[in-house]
Each structure stands twice: as structure tokens, then as C-alpha cells.
């Protein structure tokens, strides 16, 4: 092994670890400090609901909209009611304008469906019974509109454990 | 006429037309390494066991995570994979194994990098950004592939580049037509192929070049066929021009260097494209057109095969 190759291999590993852990750190920050927002789940086709150990999620926030002219990546602006449940205000391409009490959630749109990030929730096999009652998906969002799915909530706004 | 390498066929032919004794024939088989001797077998077993070991190790790691998913803290999962990655790279850099073993370990590390990104994606439920995942994976194994000069790792890298380009077209860029996307893939893969052929000192194995060539020709065929029957856009004409020039260059190169391989895959691609054109033009009288297309395919393949056999005889004297 030539010295230069060894240096390059190690340097690459170092960069990879730095980049990766910085990403993990950012996600953790969002989980700790982000605003908790509940997104109402739309019913999904039950046949695709339980495939092994995950559940497909679909949010009623972005159902029944036929966006023909939406940019591929942008922001969904929401307001929260008393139970932290999000109500859609509008879609926009950039972070501004943003008024008092409005929050941003990044979306991603691929000509058919609008995706708010978490499209599925993973859980242990055999525990699906308790997730049948899920009515909301809980996400934590930061100021950039990045969201991290934290768990599923039932109709009385309690986290399903 | 270059001097022929002694192959099994040559020895057979000579023995048939001479009074060569069986013992002598066996002797020459051994001398020309047609019969594998003990050291070659040992080397073969070595390589086999090593490759199996790497594959089983990586698979074992992935299954371990799948099985213990719920019972492990997320930092433990991420930490474990990163620890394994560090250990693998430490082996590559600081151990005294030979280069081939080190390269196999580096391949394993490259797959682990993918596992790392996918575990991250699962823990933080990052959802649909498959493009970001593949881009990260591609970027972070590029340098390893460049340094190692190891064909399997190059193959992994180029496959990842192709997948990343496709996902970019799907998820980020808007309105890339199929001819455009596959033309880009064709140019990228052909560029890699020419690059590897130019640098002889990389001494890339022939199977790797062949896989690259096949993938490039697949992309070009899809690019042209996908644009047939829609409105012929400017992109399609540009794609057609690029593909035509590259095919012509490939054929010229084949005749100069006396390689049969490109003379097989390029005409095959052309036959597919012409068939698609025929089907498209004859959509009014479909049944008769299908007959014509079938006849065209049968006759053109026949001509191609007979010509290739003839060329092979003159070039390789078999």
C-alpha cells in the first residue's frame, strides 16, 4: 500500500464520518428542539398497510389536491390548532412569505403524489395491532422546514407506545 | 498475422494429424498451463473463500441489524456500523495483507457505507429522498474506487452513478424525457469505457470492459427506442447523432483491433432499433408488419452470425 493511497483512504473515511455524524447531529437537534406538529393520516389501502413491519403513511393534508404547476421541491405552509394538528394554508416555493403562527414543512412532489418526507413508519413485527388506531403522524420540524417523524398518535392526541 | 497462443484446440488439432504420443500430449498440456497445477488450484480456492467471506460478513451484518432492530438504541446501531467501517479501513491501511485481500476488504467497506446510509434513512424516517441516499453513497466511495484500481469496486461505483442519475431525473430535475436521460447514461458509461481502454496501465480485466460496453449499448438502445413513435424531439435527433457516431467508431475500432465483441453488440442494438422503427411505421396494418419484422429479425441475425463466424475464422484461425 503506497503512502499516498493510504492517506487518501483515511481522509475519505474521515470526511465520511464527519459528514454523516453532522447529519445525525442535525436530526437529533430537530428531534429535541423542533416544534411538534400532528399531521392527520389519510386512510391508506389496507392491503398495503401491513407489509411485514412497516406501515405506509399518507397525510390528508396533501390528499385530493391536483397540483399541476407545483415545483418539485418546496414548502407547505401550515397553521396549528389547539391540539397541534396542522391545517394547510398554502404551498410556496421559498421560505418567505411567512406570517405569525405559520410553520413550514418541506415537501417533495413527483408528478403524482406530494410527499412530506416520512412515507412509512417502521415498527417491530407482530405489534401492528396497536397501530391500527393511529389517526395522526407526529413530526418535529425545525425552522428550515425539515421534519423528522417521531411516532404515531391516536384520536385523543396520545402517542401510541 | 500474430503468433497464436497455444490453446487446447491447437494441441488437439496437431495431435490429430501427427503421431504424437498421449503421454507427450499430456506433458504439453501441463507445460502450457492448460491443465491447472496445484498452485493455480490453491490460488482459486483462496480467492473463492475470500470472496465468500466478504459477502457473508456484509450479509451477516445486515441481517444482524434487521433482527435486533427494536432492541438496540439508535446510537448503538449507528456506532456499530461506523465502528465496523473504521475497523475495515484500519485493516486496509495498516495490515500486512496482500493487495487483493485489501481490495476485497475495501469493497466490503464500500457496501457497509451503503448500509450506514440506509440505517440512517430508517432511523430518521427520511422517506422519499432516495436520490440523496444514493448520491451520498456514490460520493463517499469514489475516492476509494479510484485509489484501489479494483474492477469490482469500479463496477459498484459505476452502477451507483447510473442509479443516482436516474433518481436525479426522477426526483429533482423536471421534465427530462426518456431519450435525454438514457442518452446521458450512454455518454457517461461510454466515457468510462473509453477512459478505461485508454489507460492500459490500469490493466482493467476484460470482463469489466465487456459489462461496461453492454450497459452503454443498453442505454443507447433504450434512448433511441423510447423516442420512436412520440414526436421526434430535437433531443432525440441529437441522441441519434451521438449514438451513430459512437457506433461507427466502435465498429472501426473493432476492425482495427480485431475484436469480435463490439461487432456483436452494436449490430444487435441496431437490429432492435430498426425493428422498433418498422413496428412504429406499420401501425395501420399491424399483422402484416409483425410478419415483416419477424422476417427481418431472423434474416438479419442469420447474416450477422455467419459474418461473425467468418471473421472469427480469419482473425483467430479457428
TrEMBL record, chain A:
Pfam family, one: GDYXXLXY
UniProt keyword annotations, A-Z: Membrane, Transmembrane, Transmembrane helix
InterPro entries in alphabetical order: GDYXXLXY
Domain of life: Bacteria
Membrane-traversing stretches: 6-25
The protein's name in its UniProt record: GDYXXLXY domain-containing protein
UniProt organism field: Arcticibacter tournemirensis
From TrEMBL, chain B:
Transmembrane portions of the chain: 40-67, 79-97, 104-123, 129-146, 153-170, 176-196, 208-228, 234-253, 260-279, 285-305
Claim: Membrane is one of the keywords in the record: yes
InterPro entries per record: DUF2157
Entry keyword set: Membrane, Transmembrane, Transmembrane helix
Domain DUF2157, chain residue ranges per copy: 40-154
Pfam families hit by this protein: DUF2157 (PF09925)
Secretion signal, residue range per the UniProt entry: none
Protein name: DUF2157 domain-containing protein
